[in-house]
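Model: You mentioned two targets. I'll fold them one after the other.
Researcher: Yes, keep them separate.
Model: Target one:
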Amino acid sequence: MRTFTLIAAAALVTAAGLTHAADIEGLRFIDDFSIATGTQFDGTNVGGLSGIDFDPATGRYWAISDDRSGFNPARFYNLNVNFDLNSINSVNFNSRTNILRPDGTNFPTNQVDPEAIRFDPATNSLHWSSEGERNGLDLQNPFVREMNLDGTFVREFNTPTRYNPTAGPVGIRRNLAFESLTLSTDGATVYAATENALFQDGPAANLSNSSPCRVISYTKATGASGAEYVYVTDPVAAAPNPAGTFVTNGLVELLAITDTTFLAVERSFSTGIGNSIRIYKASLAGATDVSGFDALPGGYTAMTKELLFNVDSLGIPLDNIEGITLGPALSNGSRSVLLVSDNNFSSTQFTQFLAFEVIPAPGSLAVLGLAVLMGTRRRR
C-alpha cells in the first residue's frame, strides 16, 4: 500500500500535465543494460527497438520493433525496465502485439517499416510511424497512424504529398524518413520528423554537410497536418575506415518537454568506427513555418539547438540508439530519461538501454518533486 501511494502521487501529477521537464539543465548517466541479439520472447526475435514510450499509469513501457515483417510480423512490445538512481536492475518483456492493417490482417513482408511509438493516455491508444520505402520501383509513402492497444487500426493522419517517394528528386530518401514521433505536452499535437532532408529540400548528411530535416505537426483531434519546421543535423561525426565506405547522421527521435522545446537525438554512424550519439535541446521558438513550401525556400529560420549530453563521453560501447522517453520519478524526486537501441537484428550488435537522471533548471520540477517527497515520507 505504501508503494502504491508513491506511484499514485507521481501519476496524479502526470495527469495534471506537470511532470514534463519544463526546462532540462542536464542529464546524469545512471547505467546501461544490454540484451543479446537472438533473444526470443513469445515466439519472436527481440530486436529492432527503434521507439519507446513510458506509460505512467502502469509504470511500463511500449517499444516498437522496426522488423518489416521479415523475421516475425510487424509488432510492438510491453515491457518493464527496472532501474533506480544507481543501476538498471532488469528488463522484462510482458507481451507482444502485432501491428495490424486497416483490414485487420498482419502486414506482409517489406510492406511497412515501423520506427516510432508514443502512448496517448488521453485515448489509451498508441501513435506510431512508418518510414515508408524508396527502393527502385518499390515506393511506399511514410505515414503516422493511431492504433488501439491490441494493434488494431484506428486512423491515419494526413501527410502532405511532398513527403511521398517518387522516381525523381522529390520526397523522402530511403531509410531517412519518419524516424521521430512525439506528442506535445498538452496532448493536442502530434509531431513527426524526417531523419534527413527530403530530396527537394537539401542534401543528406555526410562528412561535409548537415541535413535540413522537416518536423511536421498534426492536430490530434482531426489528424490534419499543420505547421512544419526545419531541424538541421550535424555532419557525420567521424570519417569511416576504410575511406569511402558508408556513413550517416540523422535525427532519430524527438521528445517534447515543453510547448516549444524537445529533446532531439542525433545518431551518427561510420563504417569501421561505430556510433556517435548526441542529445540536443531543440526549440521551435522563432523558427519559420515552412508548411507552405514543397521545397525549402531561401532565408528560413531553422529550429535552434544546444548540446545537452554527448553520449560518446561515457566511454562505453554504444549501439544504434533510436528511441527516447521520459521515465518515472526517481527516489530523490528527479525525473528519468531512458534510451533504447535498434540492433538491426545483427549478430554484431545488441539491444541497449541507457538510463539517465534529469537535472532540471531551478524550480522547473518543483511540483513533481513535492509529490514524490510526500509519497516518500508516507513510506517511512
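Model: Target two:
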Amino acid sequence: MATAPQQATSLLDRAIDWFIPPKLAAQRETRQQSRMFLISHLCGPFLGNVVPGALFFLDPSPGYQVAVLGVSITAFWAFPFLLRAFGHYNLLAFISVQNLIFCILWSCYFYGGVSSPTLPWVLSIPLLTFFYLGSNPRLRLWALAQFTINFLAFAAIYRFLPPPHEDTPLEALQGLGIVSTLAASGYVSMMALYYARILASGAELEEEMRGHLATATELRRATAEAERAGLAKAEFVANMSHELRTPLNAVIGYSQMLLEEAADEPDDGSAEDLNKIHHAGQHLLSLVNEVLDLAKIEAGKMELTHEEVAVGDFLGNLCSVHAAKARAKGVKMKINLAANLGTAKWDGQRVSQALDQILSNAVKFTSEGSVSVTASREPGRPSHRILIQIQDTGIGIAPEMLPRLFETFTVAHDATASKYGDTGLGLSLSMALCRLMGGNIEATSTLGSGSCFIVSLPVAPMSARRARKASPKADMDFDVPLSSAA
C-alpha cells in the first residue's frame, strides 16, 4: 500500500504530465525537460514570491517596484497552461528565462545593485537553462547570448540612469538578504532533487528496458530453436513416408488375401473380423498419408506435377464418384459446370485430394437434402482462376468454429467426431494444398442449414513467391490442437 508521500508524489507527477502535450510526451528527452520546466513553474512562484512579500513588510514605503516584481513572479504560473495550449516548448523556455532575468535585475536595480540581497537568484539562471534546454549546443549558445545582452543592458541602464534613492534601512536589507538567500537555496535544492529523481527513474527504466531486451533476445533464440526443431520434425516425418506406408500396405494386403480365402469357406466370424482389420488399416493409411502430406508441405518438400487438364471433364469425373455415395444415402447431388471452363495446368492428384475432402464432408454431413457443385471462371478478363462452389444442406458449422475451421486437428464437436470419424486433418490438408498451388478456400455456414465452400484455383502454375502473395494466409501452422467440421 502506497504511503502518504508516495501518493503525494504520484499526484504531483500526474498533474505535471497533464500539462505536457502528446507531441512533446512522445520524445523522452523533451518529456524530461518539460517536467523540469513545469515543476519549476508550478512550485517556483511559491518560493519566489517570498522576496516581494518580504519587501512589502521590510520596506518602509513599498512602491510600484514591489508590485511589478510580485506580478512578474506570479506570471510564471501562466507558462504551464501556455505549454498545454500551444506547445512551442523552446520558445516558452526562452521567454521564461527572460522573465526570470527581468525579475532578478529589476529587484537588483531598486535594492542595492551588485550588492543587492536578491543577487543570489542569479545562480538559478544557468541552472534552469541547463534543465530547460538540455544538451543542445545551439540553444545553449542562444541562452548565453540572452544572458549577456540582458546584463550588458542592465549595466548600461544602472550606469547612465541611476535608480532612485533607496530609503530601506540596512537592517531590513540584511533581513531581505537572509530571506532571499534561503528562498534561492530552497528553489535550487528543489530543482536539483527533482532532477535527481528524474535521473533515477530514467536509470530504472533503462534497467527495465535492458531486462526486456534480454528477454526478447531469449525469446528470439527460443523461437529460432523451436523453428529448427519444427523443421527437423517435419523433415523426419516427411522422410518416414516409406517406413510407415510399407507395413500398413502389407497389413491391408494380407487382410485382403485372408478375406478372399475366408469368402471361399463358410467362416462368417473370421470374415467379419478380417473386414474390420482391413477397414482399420485403410483408415490408418489414409490418416498417415494426410499427416505425411502436411509435413511435406510444412517442410517445403511437396512437389507439384502440372499437366494440361480439361477442367469440365476433370470435375465431372470427380463429382461422379461422390454422386454414387450421395445416392446411397438418399442425398441428391447437383452439378453445374460452366461451358467456358476450358483447360488448366494443374497437379490433378493434388486438386482431387483437396476437393475430395470437401465433397466427402458435404455428403457425410448431409442426411437428407442435396449437395450442389458449381464451377465457373472468375469474372473479368482475362480470367486466371477457376471458382468451385460446393454447397450442402447438412448440419452446418457453429459460427464460433468458422475462424478455426482450417486449423490442424480442429473438430466441430466430440459427438460429431465420434459419429462421423473426423480426425481434424482433412480440411487443413485441403487448405494447405490450395495455398501451395496459389489458391484459397473460403467457407460460410449456418448451423442446422448447411455449409458453402468456395475453392479458388489458378489456371496456370504459380511460383512459391506468387502463391504466397495470392493467398491471404500463406503461413501455415500444423501444430495447433483446437477443436470444426473437418
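Researcher: Noted. Anything on target two?
Model: Residues 276 and 448 are 32 Å apart (CA to CA).
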